What does this fold into?
Amino acid sequence: MTITAGMVAELRAKTDAPMMECKKALTEANGDLDKAEEILRVKLGNKASKAAARVTAEGAIFTATANQITALVELNCETDFVAKNDDFIAFGQAIANLVVEQNPDSVETILASKHGEGSVEETRTALIGKIGENVTIRRFKRVAQNQQTVYLHGARIGVLVEFTGQEAAAKDAAMQVAAMKPLALDASGIAPEVIERERSVALAKAQEAGKPEAVAQKNG
It folds into this structure.
């Protein structure tokens, strides 16, 4: 299978691994992106997984709240410089406000929504032309609930927590989620194949490190 530059770039954006390592992993995985990511995690350990939750290298999280409705929006760009651009920030905040007010069901619906004298997509296209970088709305979350709290860690990580009870405890939980990036609330929320994959990666990493078989099996 031919490994394209686009495939390498996509894997590199997910893992932060060196370009040549990404190409080697994709070649070994015969172009399977998920398998290539596992290969990199075995070979490079934490270095290959530190950016696994990110879709692109740069961007920001925006939040808006009104009438007990809260939204989080992830807006991506190509460089950290643009992520701090006033026009980029204004666009991201406008999208967060729109999500709260209009309750869209998809990114495509957001792009088709009215914004200014045209649509969100037209505004996005104009912004790209102005700042010279691609800008994409990656994803969003909208929650309508009596008790909720939002925690932003800088501009890159956002956590929205629904809760009953004390808000202080909910804020602490949100900060913990931002720090640990858990896959689910508990084991029941994790698919069996994910658990098996993680065990496989842990086992392979232990074997790669030259640990005795009994120790490697225990780690896996």
